[in-house]
Amino acid sequence: MKRVVLLAGLAIMLCAAAPVDRALLAGELAALSEAGNGEATYHLAMMKHLGIGGPKDEKTAFDLFRKSAEAGDPLGAYKLGCYYAGQGEAIVEPDPALALQYKLVAAEAGYALAQHDVAKHYFDAGETDLALEWLTRSAGQGFGDALRALASLHNSDAIPKDAARTYAYFTLYLARIATPTDKQKQFLADFTDKMSEADKARGDRIVADWHAEASPLTVKALSGLRAAEALVDLHLEVKGDVI
Fold first, then answer.
1. Rounded Cα distance, 140 and 5, in Å
2. pTM exceeds 0.85, yes or no
């Protein structure tokens, strides 16, 4: 199998980095946010949303995500879409149309989770071709839920069934999760036993040729405070405060 960038492994590596001074970081992000920096506003909103460096404040987080989205930050737009999708039920009324609108901004910018969410929206709406397109983009970044969904879709009646792709995508999905369940492993074994030799060979070629790599935006989303700190450091360097 060709090189695959596994998102879970990347997240673990990033979380192992040295801790940051969260109060100082929040202050620097707030200053950049006041100056109109959409990415800084997104990171500040995430700190409020998760309760990092202080108590959780969902109302402030929502307002900051909206400000971030208005400033053109795709991750801010994604989180705003999550609120309209029902995550912020106590803050704002769910609005599926607005949720899709904002998540599409992040999906088009390359965020794997947004691409998966957009695919689910289109599948639920009966727009299978669009769902397949976005799932393929998300899976192309190694996003496990998208690989699993692709396997299910190719084994359903929603599109012409394709045993080779079902087998390949589910094999790739199991390869990227830490602990496949016995039920999952048994499903793949049983499915493989029923495949024709031609389908099995085609599926094996798909697996062997598979190459997935997370987009810069997906990496940034997974980086959390590391990305926030890098943004602050960059602006300090530009100001000449860091040599």
1. 10
2. yes
Going by C-alpha positions, the residue among 37, 235, 36, 33 that lies closest to residue 48 is: 33
- pLDDT 10s digits, 177-205: 989 999 999 999 999 999 999 999 999 99
Q: Name which of 125, 88, 85 is nearest 101 in CA terms.
A: 85
* Token reading at 136: 């393929």
**Is the Cα torsion angle 86, 87, 93, 99 positive or negative in sign?**
negative
Question: Which residues are CB-neighbours of 34 under 8 A, at least 6 positions away?
Answer: none
The H or E element containing residue 30 is helix 22-34
Enter the tokens of residue 215: 């987009």
What is the number of H-type helices and E-type strands within the chain? 14, 0
- Output DSSP code: residue 195: S
Q: Please report where in the chains the tokens 């045993």 appear, as a residue.
A: 163
Terminal-to-terminal C-alpha distance of the chain: 43
CA distance 15 to 94: 32
Bridge partners (DSSP) listed for residue 4: 212
Alpha-carbon distance of 219 to 113, in angstroms, equals 11
Q: Give φ, ψ of 159 to 5 degrees.
A: -135, 165
